[in-house]
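Please produce the structure of this protein holding NDP.
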Amino acid sequence: MKKKIIAYNRVETPVLEDLQKKYDVYFYKNIDTKTDPLFLEHLSEAQGIIGLELEVDKELLEHAPHLEIVSNVSVGHNNLDMEQLTERGIMATNTPDVLTDTVADTVFGLLISTARRIPELDQLVKNGEWKTEAIEPEYFGTDVHHKKLGIIGMGRIGQAIAQRAHFGFDMDILYHSRTRKPDVEEKFSATYCTLDELLSESDFICLITPLTPETEGMIGKREFQLMKKSGIFINGSRGKTIVEQDLIDALKTSEIAAAGLDVFEKEPVNAINPLLQMKNVVTTPHIGSSTYETELKMSELAAHNLEAGLNGRKPPNLIDESVWKT
Ligand SMILES: NC(=O)C1=CN([C@@H]2O[C@H](COP(=O)(O)OP(=O)(O)OC[C@H]3O[C@@H](n4cnc5c(N)ncnc54)[C@H](OP(=O)(O)O)[C@@H]3O)[C@@H](O)[C@H]2O)C=CC1
Ligand SMILES: O=CC(=O)O
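Below is the modeled complex.
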């Protein structure tokens, strides 16, 4: 008998079609399915789940007695209650590495767009408001090259950001993570520092940690106050790693100069969120890894993890290896 899987928004079409040949696939596009009786019925039969950011918590797991593996189509796995999954011996996997460069490009793109005010000036040109041959100083941006960049979370993506900054833009790099990384320091001439030192000394700050109990709200009022008034803050991690209201206040009171945001406390972001009214805030809708090439690679890797788990092989990207019993 074919195994049953729930494929959850988003699994790229070729990957979905391949899974459909081998498994009974219940495909869900809507993110609001957790109370849907049909979803709960499918969940009660499923051996596997593959998808992006389905909140897998105790309540959901109570409806999933046959579940063997949850395969996230993302590297972040804050949507998974790992304690509950491990306690039940259910495997969980993610998709590291294949998205690293793409996310670093997004973060760097936000950084440059914010510093050079590209979306604002694009709008000015398109609105027919480019009146004089030489643009007025009120529309000048600030340099990126040769400035000081602080990276919070010097993991895979943090290092890919450092690579772009060091080799492409001659930036000085400060970093903060849980552990020091001598190889990274050597490769990018990077300097390890405390969070407070990084905040007060950097011209640009990129936050790219996972969302965990330790990082939730790690950047708030006190941290924004430590930043330079000319400082530009970029968040590529998760919305809840910062206190969003404190960012709004810091921008309103010119505590910092500008922000580039790919992630928000609530997603999709509420249309009346004050951040969306600010010219010095550049936003993207959580698209760090969203290129055709990378989304396909992520889906393929997630399917590979899922199939390994369902067929008695160790998935390459097991988040908690302790669930694997040889
Ligand atoms: N916007 C988007 O579309 C995307 C967002 N992301 C986000 O980026 C995150 C990072 O991904 P990736 O680089 O692959 O992950 P890694 O695990 O490779 O890196 C995470 C880094 O964060 C550091 N870190 C963890 N906890 C803390 C803490 N309490 N204080 C300071 N630093 C900490 C780690 O430190 P140490 O090395 O010392 O352990 C590590 O350097 C993901 O978890 C996800 O949330 C990822 C992809 C796309
Ligand atoms: O946000 C995306 C991820 O892969 O994590």
